[in-house]
Each structure stands twice: as C-alpha cells, then as structure tokens.
Specification:
CATH topology of the largest domain: D-Maltodextrin-Binding Protein, domain 2
CATH architecture of the largest domain: 3-Layer(aba) Sandwich
Structural class: alpha/beta
Number of domains: 3
Helix content: 40-55%
Oligomer: single chain
Shape: globular
Strand content: 15-25%
Distance between the termini: 57 Å
Radius of gyration: 25 Å
Number of helices: 10
CATH superfamily of the largest domain: Periplasmic binding protein-like II
CATH class of the largest domain: Alpha Beta
Strand order of the largest sheet: 4-3-5-10-6-9
Number of strands: 10
Length: 301
Amino acid sequence: MRQKLPPLNALRIFEVAARAGSYSAAAKELNLTHGAVSRQIAILEEWLGQPLFFRDGQSMAASPHARALAREITAAFDHIADAAERYGKSRHLKVIRVSASATVAMRWLIPQLPSFAERCPDVDVRVSTVMSTEAALRGSFDMAIRREVPSSGQYQTWPLFRESNTVIASPALILRSGVKTVEQLSNETWLTSETRPGDWEAWVKAAGCPTLRANRTLRFDHFFVTLQAVSDALGFGIGPFPTLEADCASGRLQTPFPELRSLGSTYYALISHDADKPIHMRAFIDWLQSVSADIETSPGS
C-alpha cells in the first residue's frame, strides 16, 4: 500500500495550490518559495504521469482533472486530521460527531441541538449528512442515526422514534386549491420521492381511499428536494412526523388531514460497541434519549 502512495509532501502542497488557485498563493499560505511549490508539483505530476496545472497568463492554474483530484485529497486530509484529533493524547476539545440522513439532520436533529448546548455548552456537536439510500455506515462519526439497523452486531442501537406520515402542503396551495376532503386530492399534483417509495399508496390506504390516484405526479430523487417543491407550492406531498413538526409550527407547511396517518420508518441511534464513551458522549446519549422519549408522534396542524 505504501508503494502505491504518492509523495505525501507533494500531495500536501498540491492540495493547497489547487485550493488556493495558483503557485504564488500556495507559496504564500505555506511560507515557501514559488520554486519550492513548483518542484513539488512537478514531482507529483511525474509520479502520476500527467500534468496537473497549465499556464494561465502569468500564473499556473489547476486543470479540471487536478481540481477533482484535489477535492478527494482534501477529504482524505480532513479524515486524517479528524482521526488524529479523536485519538490523539491531548484532547482539549469535547467533540461529538453525528452522522444522519439529510432530512432528519436538518429538520429534526439540528433544531433540537440548542437544548443540548444549554445543558453542555462546552461540547461541540458536529453533524454530517448522508443520503438515506446509503445503507453502508461510512465516514468518521461517534453516533449514527439511520432508518435501518446493520445486521453485523457491531453497533449498540436503540429506537429514537417511528415516523407517522400525512399529507403536507404550503399554506398558499391549500388556500388556492380549496381542498377540504381526501377525494379532492385526486384533482391535484402529488409530489413523490424515489427514496420514499409507496408513501402515497400507504397513506390513501390508511385514509380509506385505496384506489385514489392523482391527476398528475411529479417525482424527485430525494425527499429534501420534494420538501422544497412542497414549500414552493408545486403540489401536495406526504411528510414524516415528528421530523417536520418545526416546519408546521413555523407556518411553512400545513397538514390538511392531520388525523389521517400512515406509519413510516423507525429511526435508530447507533454507536459502535468499541467506541470511546467519555462523559460528554454519555451526556449526549442521555439527552437524545430524553428527547426521543418526549416526542409527540401526532403531526402538527
């Protein structure tokens, strides 16, 4: 593996040069001479067997190929720095890294974090997001929040909440459409997500109208895109609760039939059995469990 690695010093200088935009900017950031930067880039280009920069006037600019490589190198360096911070002997920062699907992170977890910050103001919670279609647990994290529990037995898990789904729409669309009954939805546009197949079918069945279908359907790849389309009044969607409670409380969304619900996925918290569990991590676990215990599963109106 070591024989396959490019020269690490050349990689470091290349990453700065590609990010900074020129040899001169990299030299200034790294406190090196222009020539030193140029020599290291040349070493890396020779190792890769192709040029990475081209002359643009008086400067050297990164090629599209080099910018793509630099993005991956940056991510790798970030991962190394993260691991060094986590496993280093001197740990001045109290950091908790949470990986969650994008919608749950943005709509449920992050709005809750101020209450944890009040409880533990010296702890830094860093949230990273993944697509809900990514089944594998990748990346560096202390805790993951997922819809499915891995079968490997590697993780300690507990349920946070089970979603209940109902129709959501923007207040403007509800006012404009004049929808009052479930049957009237057949004249409207239904918005669906590839990551949540069958949501509409499950809801109309729960509402007692299993054969009801839409006048028109628009499908998006991810739910947070569908959610934006709902907010922009493109049509009616099916939304999960308690994830969208804050959106309803703020008036951004409304639920025309809040009492009609279908059950959705259960979300779980996962922590590796081998992970360190310092005091601040245990405090976060206790806080998260208290939040999930307080969840009201009925959708907002």
